[in-house]
Amino acid sequence: MTLLLLQTFLPRVAHPSVIAVGIAYFAVIIAISVWASRRTKTAGDFFVAGRGIGLIALTVASVSTSVSGFAFIGGPGLMYTVGLGALFIVLPASVTNVMGAWVLAKRMRLLAEARGLMTVPDAIGARYRSPAAQGLSGVAILVGIVGYMATNALAMGVVIDAIFGVGIGWGIWLGMGITLAYSAAGGILAGIYNDVFQGTLMAFASVLVFIFVLKAGGGLAGISQAILETDPKFLAPWGKLSPLAALSFFFVFAMGALGQPHGVHKYYMLRDPMQLKWYPLLKTLGLILVLLLYFGVGIGVKAFTSNGLMPPLKAPDQATPTLLLSVTPVFLAALVFSGVAAATMSAVNSFINIGAAVVTHDIPVAIGKKVRNELAWGRAATACIAVLAALIAQYSGTLVAFLGIFGWGLFASTLVPALAIGLNWQGATRAGAIASIACGLTITLSLEIAAYMKVFTFPSGVTASAISLVLSILVFFLVSHLTHGKASDRIDEDVRVIMEM
Amino acid sequence: MTAASPSAASPSTSLDDRSGAGNRTKRFARFALIGSSVAIAVAYGSAFQEGGAPGWAPWLLALGIPTALVAVMIMGAVREKTGLKRLAIPFAFVGILLAVVFCLALALPPNESAQSRLFLGLPLRAALVVYGVGLLPTLILPIVYALTFETQTLTTEDVLKVRELGAAYAKRHDGRRSEE
């Protein structure tokens, strides 16, 4: 999703107020990280915050991790380009949080209670009693993370360059260095509390921007009227996309949300499982607040360029910065730019932590090895992954954009069947889980690579993510049906009880 | 932390082999999920034919996606012994709401223009999608989840039972490790 942030460089906004807010923001991040690093003493602290996070902190952190820089820059730019069709990426937020709560949250949190699980592949391993399924899902997550991380590293570089004018290369290493410092020192605990700060900042900035846009445009009716007079198709329900394309977005981002490791991993961390009661409501409300900017800027820029309040954009990604500098106070623009940096750093931190857990925990489990000091190796893996992602971001050219494309779809197609459906259907088998993970991994990679190499073009409205997701679901059911009843697919008693609750 | 252990397997007890309201509902939801996934796959497959996706393909998605989402929610929400209970109505409502909004967006004439009447600031079809899909389910499902949490989702007794099972599992696991 960060791809759209990379199509062009953001305009320089190195205004003294923007720089001051940026420096203050980084100072807060460092202070939180120092505090968190003193509280991180075990691998459990490092990977799941010792299962001691309260409801509000976890909710805000989860909102912050969910959106990434795309919601602030790429999303509004996409909406400016294709109209309301771009909303189909974020509309699923109305159901995905509560869907995740019913389908995964309770069972994953209870599995953590019973088994002390730390990673998403842990849950797959426990469900199917299969180190192979655990390891394969870990590999799939790692492949997706490399892409996401590299893309977000580049996005950080672009944003930091826009704020401080240091150049994209230095921006990448500055952003990654700060994120690495707090990820390695304080693990997910630092990540969570930095996310709380960052999420609060994002929600606050988003609401303010939305209010300013409505004020400048004469309300939503005034904005719509300005658009309808010049480009009515923008406000068609699918915008300028085909219905198939818009509905595909909805399918991939709704069903696929159940397979995003940075989202579902958070279920392990809640201090008291009974607090799950309010989690979906609070998270949905938080997401709506943060996504107001996506909708407000996307529709506002279109209206303001239609009625002459703003000049036409040179590139879609300039929608947010151009609008901020045109209709909002500089201080608010500074907050939003810090919010974008916050969003990308938040996503990177979460992915670094999950990737480190795969390397030091899930893959060793799959090959029957036990890492002795998971905390120390977790910190080392964190540093390696961060440096690798920064190097890819800096030196891989257009490949980095390609890597960023398939992260969401890869997670969805490899984890939704085995994890989300498998934890709710006792008839699912180990073979079905392994087949669906392999299917998702293979189809996503082969279709995306074929499209990247230009040996294949998708028909209008069809994406590799959508095809691989639906096929991996069907393969999961088919193989589970064919291998149903094998003794080796029996479920441990504690897992079975949790599945029946 | 040990996830994949070959210990303490219970007899293979598939839901298919059991009776009870929850199991029947889960089976129904599973078939709905499979059926809707097939419909979605057919819609995508049809787009590969010459000339692109036929006119009926988006309709398959408009009906298949809400069915798939509600089906997977039902699979997650059903407790084995009690079924859906009070959740049936909100699930049905949201599934129908999403399907109706998508179908209306497809069926209503594309007549957005400067003369269009606005509903809450947007032309009719856009308002249906933004408020009907993006906002209305937010006001229903998370609130229903919270209101039915103790009766339908999780009780303190559940948590205590899981802790006991976890302690027993740890004891067995530690015992086996010390034997090794």
Explain what the structure shows.
Chain A is an all-alpha fold and 501 residues long. Chain A contains 20 helices and no strands. Chain A has helices at 16-39, 43-48, 55-67, 74-82, 93-115, 120-128, 131-164, 168-217, 219-230, 243-255, 261-264, 279-306, 319-327, 330-366, 374-395, 399-405, 407-421, 430-452, 464-482, 493-500. The longest helix of chain A has 50 residues, at 168-217. Chain A starts with 15 loop residues before the first helix and ends with a helix. Chain B is an all-alpha fold and 180 residues long. In chain B, strands 1-2 form a two-stranded antiparallel sheet. In chain B, helix 3 runs antiparallel to helix 5. Chain B starts with 20 loop residues before the first helix and ends with a helix.
Question: Biggest sheet of chain A, in brief?
Answer: none
The assembly state of the depicted protein chains is: heterodimer
Strand percentage of chain A lies at: under 5%
Low-confidence stretches of chain B: 1-18
| Strands side by side in the biggest sheet of chain B | 1-2
Biggest sheet record of chain B:
2 strands, antiparallel
The shape of chain A is globular
Rounded mean pLDDT of chain B is 87
**Termini separation of chain B (Å)?**
18 Å
What does the average pLDDT of chain A come to? 87
**What string, H for helix and E for strand, traces the elements of chain A in order?**
HHHHHHHHHHHHHHHHHHHH
| Helix-strand category of chain B | mainly alpha
Shape of chain B: elongated
Q: What is the helix content of chain B?
A: 55-70%
Terminal Cα span of chain A: 36 Å
Radius of gyration of chain A: 22 Å
Q: Spans of chain A of 5+ residues with little confidence (pLDDT < 50)?
A: 1-8
Strand segment tally of chain B: 2
How much beta of chain B, percentage-wise? under 5%
The H-and-E topology of chain B, N to C, reads as: HHHEEHHHH
What's a quick, concise take on this entry?
Chain A has 501 residues and is mostly helical. Chain A is built from 20 helices and no strands.
